[in-house]
Amino acid sequence: MMKFFILISLLMFLSCQKKLTKQEEATIFAGKAMQDIASGMMAEVQKAVDTMGAKKAVLYCRDFVPGYTQEKLATWSQKAREELGANSFRFRRISLRNRNPANTPNELEKAILEDWEKTGRAQPTGYERDGKIITLHPIKIASPLCLNCHGKIEQMNPDIVKEIRRLYPNDLAVGYSLGELRGAFLSEFTFPNEPK
Ligand code: HEC
After folding, report:
1. What does the chain look like in DSSP terms, one character per residue?
2. How far, in Å, from the CA of 99 to the mean position of ligand 1?
3. 59 lines ligand 1 (CB under 6 A)
4. How far apart are CA 73 and CA 52, in angstroms?
5. For the chain, which terminus, N or C, has the lower number of CB atoms within 10 Å?
């Protein structure tokens, strides 16, 4: 009897849930993708710092990111097709204080990142633009590991600082503290019909 009651309550609960919009579905999906991609990346970078020494790890980071991104893109694009019915899925990282010039945000992205910083409330955000659904998820300086390469210069290993300046002469991505907002994980979806 109890079981039956629970089943009925569950059904009632489910039927009251409003159907998620494509944009909401995409935001949830992108959050899962980010978690997988970020945790894998963090493990790889940690391994690089431990085994190669800090300076080589910087170069590794630069060379590793494109290949890793391609690999993860293949897995998550397929999932996006199967689970969301999307035509395409892409992702990249952006920051107001970017290291790689390719990670510069556009005007709209910049406005969202600035709002997150100003209000201190960085939260997953989704919108439509040019027939695409775009989602932004905050990336934080989540671990002391990040400070090796994004921390305050005077507290960083001088070899790392030198290597970063050599590879990225216009680097802006230092001076962070633990827990600070570092940027966003940006996902871009297209769907067979214009998203509603
Ligand atoms: C061993 C050095 C190193 C460590 C440790 C490291 N990063 Fe980076 N980070 C880099 C390099 C190098 C780039 C530029 C990669 C490229 O050229 O695409 C970068 C780029 C980024 C970007 C892309 C935006 C930009 O500025 O170009 C984000 C976001 C980021 N890092 C966050 C983190 C976070 C969060 C952590 C800790 C979990 C972390 N990084 C740890 C070296 C490091």
Report:
1. -HHHHHHHHHHHHHHHSPPPPHHHHHHHHHHHHHHHHHHHHHHHHHHHHHHH-HHHHHHHHHHHHHHHHHHHHHHHHHHIIIII--SEEEEEEE-TT-SSGGG---HHHHHHHHHHHHHS----EEEEETTEEEEEEEEE--SHHHHHHHS-GGGS-HHHHHHHHHH-TT-------TT-EEEEEEEEEE-SS---
2. 8
3. no
4. 26
5. N
- Residue from 73, 99, 80 nearest 25 by CA: 80
- The mean pLDDT value of the chain amounts to 90
62 in ligand 1 pocket by Cβ < 6 Å? Answer: yes
pTM of the predicted structure, to 2 decimals: 0.89
Length of the chain: 196
Q: Is 174's C-beta closer than 6 angstroms to any atom of ligand 1?
A: no
Using alpha carbons only, how large is the chain's radius of gyration in Å?
Answer: 20
Q: How far is the CA of 151 from the centre of ligand 1 (A)?
A: 11
Ligand 1 binding pocket includes 86 (Cβ within 6 Å): no
At 34-86, the pLDDT tens digits run 999 999 998 988 888 888 887 788 888 888 888 899 999 999 999 999 999 99
Domain ranges, ordered by start, for the chain: 21-190
Q: At 121, phi and psi to the nearest 5?
A: -120, 85
